[in-house]
Amino acid sequence: MIKSEQRQAIEELVYRSCLALDSGDYKAFLDLCDEAFRYTITTHSAEIKRDMVWLDHDRKGMETLFTNLPHHNSDHSPLTRHATVYTVDLEGQEASVVSALQVFRTQLDGGATELFAVGRFHDTVKLDGGTAKLVKRVVRLDTRQLGYGYHIPF
User: Fold this and answer.
1) 11-39 pLDDT, tens per residue?
2) Kind of pairing, strands 79-91 and 131-141?
3) Which CATH number describes the domain made up of 4-141?
4) So where are the chain's domains?
5) Contact 119, 99 (CB under 8 A)
6) Maximum CA pair distance of the chain?
7) CB burial string 113-143: b at 16+ within 10 A, e below
8) What is the DSSP letter of 70?
């Protein structure tokens, strides 16, 4: 059985990861991650009847991605991530966490906000005392049409 303090630390980790990415504070995001961190974005294609992997990086790859973001031709409309932690299953010092994810985009020209993407986080979190760190995040998107210029992870 997971203790309420452990669940609270895990929920806060998920929410802080969203806040860090929302604000473009990539260092703060990486500070939430373990040295063995791996980040993957996947979706299922009904047309080809297979899962597609859109992004798959270890921590070093994420650092490189964040460093190179200013050089990409990107849509600079801000994204706002809303996560809701559904389940936390603890086994030893690691927890498997499933969270709902909705991503909203606010257009720079006109300020209209729209639902941009929907999916789930499937996180592996390492607990060490009162500290929680992301070891693995698999983003399983239901949304498959994002347009061009989206290099920032969800």
Assistant:
1) 999 999 999 999 999 999 999 999 999 99
2) unpaired
3) 3.10.450.50
4) 4-141
5) no
6) 49
7) eeebbebbbbbbbbbeeeebbbbbbbbbbee
8) G
